Amino acid sequence: MCGIVGAIAQRNVVPVLVEGLKRLEYRGYDSAGVAVHTGSAITRVRRVGRVAEMENAAAEINLTGQLGIGHTRWATHGGVTEYNAHPHVSHGQIAVVHNGIIENHDEQRERLKQLGYVFESQTDTEVIAHLVHHYYKNGGLDLVEAVRVASRELSGAYAIAVIALDQPDVMACARKGCPLLVGLGEGENFIASDVSAIISSTRKVIFLEEGDIAEVRREGVKLTDQQGQPIERKIHFSDVSLASLELGPYSHFMQKEIHEQPKALADTIEQVLHDGFLPALFGAGASEILSQIDGVQILACGTSYYAGLTARYWLEAIAGIPCSVEVASEYRYRDAVARPNTLIVTISQSGETLDTMEALKYAKSLGHKWALSICNVKESAIPRASDLVIYTRAGAEIGVASTKAFTTQLIALFALTCTLAKLRGKLTAARETEYLDALRQLPGSVQHALNLEPQIRVWAERFAGKDHALFLGRGVHYPIALEGALKLKEITYIHAEAYPAGELKHGPLALVDENMPVVVIAPNDALLEKVKSNIQEVRARGGEMFVFADLDSHFSESEAVHVIRTPRHVGVLSPVVHAIPVQLLAYHSALMRGTDVDKPRNLAKSVTVE
Ligand code: AGP
Fold this sequence. Notes:
Elements: E1 3-8, H1 14-24, E2 31-37, E3 42-48, H2 51-60, E4 67-73, E5 88-90, E6 94-102, H3 105-114, H4 125-138, H5 143-152, E7 156-164, E8 167-176, E9 181-184, E10 189-192, E11 204-207, E12 213-216, E13 221-224, E14 236-237, H6 253-259, H7 261-275, H8 286-290, E15 295-300, H9 302-318, E16 323-327, H10 328-331, E17 342-348, H11 354-366, E18 371-375, H12 381-384, E19 388-391, H13 404-423, H14 429-450, H15 453-463, E20 468-473, H16 478-492, E21 495-500, E22 517-522, H17 528-539, E23 544-550, E24 561-566, H18 574-593
Parallel strand pairs: 15-16, 15-17, 17-18, 18-19, 20-21, 20-22, 22-23, 23-24
Antiparallel strand pairs: 1-4, 1-10, 2-3, 2-4, 5-6, 6-7, 7-8, 8-12, 9-10, 9-11, 11-14, 12-13
The protein binds 2-deoxy-2-amino glucitol-6-phosphate (AGP).
């Protein structure tokens, strides 16, 4: 969603802001803007559409300056217009960029109107600009103090960066609920909502915490709390690789990330193979916590939720531990019954999904004693709020459609399953060896699945013209059907639904005719014969079937039953391998429909609002 970048230096910062905003494009946005201190004024350039359009507009006026802030906006309050794009200014004196939502903006707006402020946008952010201006100009406070006082009066979630015309040597930032970090350079400093925005300038970063106020100058950074007391935060060295932020030889990040899966999986598996299924994988104190739990409650959204649904089959079957999985946005608003010894497991690629974060806080408030997070972004908000964490090693995931994050999340969940099984005496030494071996083989099996791409491209040609599709699976492959349908609808805009194949005749079968392609995930497992019967039900109604099977599934092809076989059966880890063909099917169908694969309409990579 929205992204923030800012810089204060002894050089022109406009290229830094533009590059930073381009690196934030992946998060999803609909307008972009910068505000730069030019020496005599704060000059703003904003455009609806791509950062490149804003960049051209800035170049036309030869915008330069040594202090500036920039923003990519994903509209929430107010439509997609230049007026609503950030930065927002007050009286040409104060400029603000903001991520998050100010919940009391109506009330503040009324108050500021009474004070004579005139609003030019429908955003909640403009309230911040005027409020800071009010304390700065009328209250006689300096910029940092004005931001501190103003932020105490804002409710909701925010990360803000503010500059002032009269103070060309400082940038003030505040953080509550939304990520913001400071990047430390030599004689220059930076701020960003995401480390990727500033990675070409510095890798030394400080992650701001709740309530932190940062005073960022060229020569240094001072951190204080909301009362003005100095605070210290650790300096981190970011290991995000520049290569992971660039396309290289690929046409799309989604394509790149699909093909990176053997490596992403091998990297994630490496930490498991190194020590075996030991609690230490999940951090200090894991042994004590994991041996006391009596159940698992998984909370997540979207693709991460489907990873959780897959894990439920493993956790109950292999570890014999009760497991529930719930969409975070539902859980956080229902009167759930707390089971204090049930481990809360949150799954989030970004680690900043608001619904997942709020569900975690809610679970804790209900009395759940322990939380474990599975996350791909180091030091992000959700792992920081958890007792235990395992990081997936997928590398930066830029495409809005999650691919390598999903399959690596499955590895983390499988490792959790086996660790719990071992602690509970349910994993024999022979089984442990078998599972470790299966993990070792997995990147190779995934590569074999990727090699099916030419055949899947042919299927995609038939899919591209359809308006609807059904996905079917059973057991542990049902969540893969759900994930396949989500991928397809997300990037092709084809309406797709997934069902457990056994549910077909309880309703969805009525939809099946020759215009409804039906994708079936049907590897050789205990439910294969049942799936085959379900397929007959579709065939009898004229439906065209696209079956992903494995070598042992023994499907016979016919005119309306197309089969692609993954080269080997990988047993318990089969859902990981079967995620690959459904990703490729969605990707190639989207290419043929000409959609914006990496930035599908209406969607954002990190969903930091409700
Ligand atoms: C996946 O393709 C989606 N874009 C989306 O469902 C995503 O998985 C969801 O928003 C959760 O994100 P998270 O893993 O970063 O929390």
